Amino acid sequence: MRARAAKVMPSSAFGHVGTALLPANYPQFFERAEGAYVWDADGNRYLDYMCAFGPNLLGYRDPRVESAASAQAARGDVMTGPSPLAVELAEKFVEIVAHADWAFFCKNGTDATTIARTIARAQTGRRKILIAEGSYHGAAPWCTPFPAGTVPEDRAHMLTFTFNDIASLEAAVAEAGDDLAGIIATPFKHEAFANQELPTQNYARRCREICDATGAVLVVDDVRAGFRLAVDCSWATVGVEPDLSCWGKCFANGYSISAVMGSNRVKQGADSIFATGSFWQSAISMAAALATLDIIRDGKVIEKTARLGQRLRDGLDQVSRRHGFTLNQTGPAQMPQILFEGDPDFRIGFAWTSAMIDHGFYLHPWHNMFLCDAMTEEDIDQTISAADSAFASVRAALPTLQPHERVLALFSARAH
Ligand code: PMP
């Protein structure tokens, strides 16, 4: 499949779903998925800790979501205008998300973050947007981490600061002066190739205070973390409400829909912009979203995934130590990042995840992972016991491990 793809698809698959930046034994094409598992094009089954990079929250093909989606599929999907489900879904979000007075639907996370940026500028009539250095907000020219094909002007009026560092935030605000349109914040630091970091309450509050004092718009990019930490915007966990929030990935359990939500404070800006897409009104995705929200509203999915994530974290800590490795397991337990201490070029992490793939466990050597509600304690315990033998084989091979050449090249090509 890869050889065929290389002939007819640029770089055989764009972005993080390509396997060029993964160990050689990683599958690139998947034939089907069910519950917590995926099957690759050769029929191998994996317990999937990537959850499609986030969209799988309840388990693949959750029957409750599938039946809502197929009922709508029998009635129509993309039509000449939105279905009444759009209004129902917006009403439901307004009920669930404390800061939201309205919701707008699109397809991908990049749509949502790009629209939020436009609304912040329309609302304020200003230009400067602040983002944390290294944060990921999507693949558009203003935010892509890979500069090929972009020009510096695509990032004009974008300023950066260091996540959780109030002094650097304030310095960027001072640089923006009276032209500050907004701050776009990820709910926690969750970028690739790095340890994750939760926000301090002081940092999150300072973002809010600055926006209140300057009239700038505070945006939380909850595309990755939304509904995995709170049945609300993720910054509810630190007591801060944004003006705008961006959502995507998991709220329709894998159906393609994203959203921008906002308070009435920025409604005028939102009313004034033009944003649309041929497939943004897909009623099937909205039916799937309504079903998913009904299931997750009681918070039990968050509780369970956090509990299973902690079980995994504790178990891996224990067995890795037995083999003389120290893991940096960071971020919320239900969205784990697992890196090895003393592994600056990721060669140990690559060897370990590569061994895990051979055991049938799809983990990632440099991107945060996700737990889903279909996982069981038995799944976690099997992961830990496979990890035990994977650590042993990495320990034995340690002197011969080499860094991955594409990863080394990537570090020098990254825009920021
Ligand atoms: N923001 C964040 C925080 C993300 O994690 C992602 C996707 N990884 C995006 C934006 C972009 O979403 P999409 O890939 O759906 O365009």
UniProtKB/TrEMBL annotation:
Gene3D superfamilies: Aspartate Aminotransferase, domain 1 (3.90.1150.10), Type I PLP-dependent aspartate aminotransferase-like (Major domain) (3.40.640.10). Its cofactor is pyridoxal 5'-phosphate. The keyword ATP-binding does not apply. Keywords: Aminotransferase, Pyridoxal phosphate, Transferase. The keyword Isomerase does not apply. Pfam families: Aminotran_3. GO terms for molecular function: transaminase activity. InterPro entries: Aminotrans_3, Aminotrans_3_PPA_site, PyrdxlP-dep_Trfase, PyrdxlP-dep_Trfase_major, PyrdxlP-dep_Trfase_small. Belongs to the class-III pyridoxal-phosphate-dependent aminotransferase family. This is Aminotransferase class III-fold pyridoxal phosphate-dependent enzyme. It comes from Sphingosinicella xenopeptidilytica. The lineage of its organism: Bacteria, Pseudomonadati, Pseudomonadota, Alphaproteobacteria, Sphingomonadales.
